[in-house]
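All the exercises in this workshop are built on plain-text protein records. A learned vocabulary of local backbone shapes supplies the integers on the structure line. Once this layout is familiar, the rest of the handout is easier to follow. An example says more than a description, so a record of this kind follows:
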Amino acid sequence: MSTVVQLEYVGDLAPYDEEEAALAEAGASLTVVRAADGDALVEAAGDADVIWVEWTPHLTRDVLERLPKLGLAIRWGVGYEQIDVAAATELGIAVANAPAYCTEDVAEHALAMLLAVSRQVVFRDRQGQQGLWRHGPAKQKRLAGSTVGVVGLGRIGSHVAKVAAAFGATVLGYDPVVTSPSVRQVGFEELLASADFVSVHVPLTAETHHLFDADAFALMRPDATLVNTSRGGVVSQAALVEALDAGRLGAAALDVFEQEPLPADNPLRGRDNVILTPHEGANSPQSGRDLRRAVYGATVEWLRTGWTDAIVNPQVRPHARAGR
């Protein structure tokens, strides 16, 4: 019987009845463990054929080299920076994700944050909760006729672009890899200089780490808004704070951060022009069901056939460890 190990993070995915039933039909069992670090992970999952990764600990090269049976590592989500894909490929380990499970949810969250800034919803709510009524000016901005720049034109970014256009916004897109016929694509610098709102939808890679740094913020309009629902590391938090303090950026709406949870004393807190949500843009009952089915579905397919379309490193196939 094959062994699937779930690296549990906080326990909010339990119970795993649906997963266990699907795996049992494929001749596999599910073991749920928690591990504080890589050593504990190896001790708990040393015999695993498949590992499901929520958040931590990460599957680094050192960890992967000590998992001799591992054939498939799946990340619960779209991003998979928790797994060293290059090392996994060298070792014959397939890496998979759930690329489509939360497209609408994250796109809607990004647009909700964008609209909350443009209509000053959160700012006025904070005042209303204090008993204030139209206390001072609010900097509302009409989305129709504004320019929305979408950085990253994958599933989520393309959906944001589509809905923003439906609101009557002019949409510009930037993506060095993906071509979208429905979006006018421009260079990164042109997008930053033109957009009233910039919504970020790129994975965290060596190339995108701190894509938004001091130089990027210097190109943006001083009344522009940055919306980030991708990964915290795409934005230099120090540069963002500096830009806000200096008035070189109008507002920011963030669902993701370089350090999570966001520390209580973080300088982004307590600002009228900043909206913060706790990395939950992907969350909904519908997306949760989709995620579960994507993860165990890809696992069952791999166990039965030795492959699944959810694999992100297809170059591993000629020397992949057997899935059957």
Q: What stands out?
A: The CA atoms of residues 105 and 284 lie 7 Å apart. The mean pLDDT is 96. Residues 2-101+284-319 form a domain with the Rossmann fold fold (CATH 3.40.50.720). The chain has two domains: 2-101+284-319, 103-276.
